[in-house]
Design a protein that fits this description.
This protein is an alpha/beta fold. It has a single domain, classed as Rossmann fold (3-Layer(aba) Sandwich). The chain is built from ten helices and twelve strands. The strands form four sheets. A six-stranded parallel sheet has the order 2-1-3-4-5-10, sandwiched between helices. Strands 6-9 form a two-stranded parallel ribbon. The chain has a two-stranded parallel ribbon with strand order 7-12. Helix 5 links the parallel strand 4 and strand 5. Helix 2 runs parallel beside helix 4 and helix 8 packs across helix 10. It is globular and about 55 Å long. The two termini are about 30 Å apart. The structure holds NADP nicotinamide-adenine-dinucleotide phosphate.
């Protein structure tokens, strides 16, 4: 199977690259913004014409949640319009499209884990652009699976884990919100799950949404505490509410994803977030 990975220098893309050697049956074409700018519709069409692509994993994204508020057009271009270009090209080539979406499509007013069937109502430009991207994929790709994930971190790229470690090396005390609750997800677990499931998807699969995060629940405060404790760092973490630390973009207060569907359909085991955090920290 020939697999095109777009945006492959981001967290998820880098995890896929580092796992590639364990999947000898797959041949990977890893591209980044320079080798394939997904917002260039013509370049996307040409790329698919030039070589056979059986599967596309779209890891490209405008993931700056706060930045997106001031960069609406670009967020929409990368997260929605480009997803449409890729979906259309994949559809024409008969390729399966794996697309990534987010817990931020929900408004977070719920108090039980969100299922794939729950109504989306994004509170941010980023969330709205990702929801529009889902629709582009559902509409244009002939074979597609959308993974909704949350709070991705990795030893690669920029993320909350790296930011906490950096701040802890500079300060004695950090303020972190405890009224936003979700589930941290090790990008390596998500990458492995995607690669493991590729042969299990039915050939005519179209527009299926699956939630995938690590197991368990945490606030950003809990996540920060766990990072510092596991690293043996003594920096103090002060729990604050979102109103005390206003960010540019509104975020859901509750965005835990219900993973019963993916576990039931494919019998997968999902690692607990603290276990995956420990694994990741051994690589940081
Ligand atoms: N990070 C999270 O917490 C989170 C949570 C839920 C869902 N997701 C979703 O999961 C997916 C992967 O996230 P991630 O954390 O791995 O993202 P990431 O680390 O920000 O990586 C995104 C990659 O996309 C690339 N990119 C941006 N514009 C592009 C373009 N026009 N053409 C080609 N590549 C482009 C970026 O390149 P540059 O570095 O050059 O900009 C970057 O390498 C995204 O769809 C994201 O929305 C992420």
């Amino acid at each position: 199977m020939q697999i095109l990975v777009t945006g492959s220098r981001g967290q998820l893309g880098m995890e896929l690259q580092s796992l590639a050697e364990h999947y000898p049956d797959y041949r990977f074409l890893f591209t980044d913004r320079t080798s394939l700018d997904v917002t260039d519709g013509e370049a996307v069409r040409k790329f698919f014409k030039k070589q056979r692509i059986d599967c596309l994993i779209n890891c490209a994204g405008h993931t700056g949640v706060d930045q997106a508020e001031a960069d609406v057009e670009n967020a929409h271009l990368v997260n929605a319009k480009a997803a449409g270009y890729l979906a259309e090209a994949a559809g024409k080539a008969g390729a399966l499209m794996i697309h990534l979406s987010t817990d931020y499509v929900f408004d977070g007013k719920g108090c039980r884990p969100y299922t794939e069937g729950d109504s989306a109502n994004p509170r941010s430009v980023y969330g709205k652009s990702k929801l529009d991207g889902e629709l582009e994929v559902l509409f244009n790709a002939k074979r597609s699976v959308i993974f909704r994930t949350s709070w991705l971190y990795s030893s690669y790229g920029t993320n909350f884990l790296k930011s906490i470690l950096k701040q802890a090396s500079e300060k004695n005390e950090l303020k972190v919100v405890f009224d936003q609750v979700g589930t941290p997800t090790y990008a390596r677990d998500l990458a492995r799950t995607i690669l493991d499931l590729l042969p299990a998807f039915p050939p005519r699969i179209r527009g299926e949404i699956y939630n995938y995060s690590n197991e368990g629940v945490a606030s950003w405060y809990d996540f920060a505490r766990a990072i510092l404790e596991m690293k043996g760092l003594s920096c103090k973490v002060v729990p604050v509410v979102t109103a005390e630390m206003p960010a540019v973009a509104a975020r859901p207060h509750y965005s835990v994803l219900d993973k019963r569907r993916i576990k039931k359909d494919f019998g997968i085991r999902v690692p607990y977030w603290r276990d995956s955090l420990a694994e990741c920290l051994s690589a940081v």
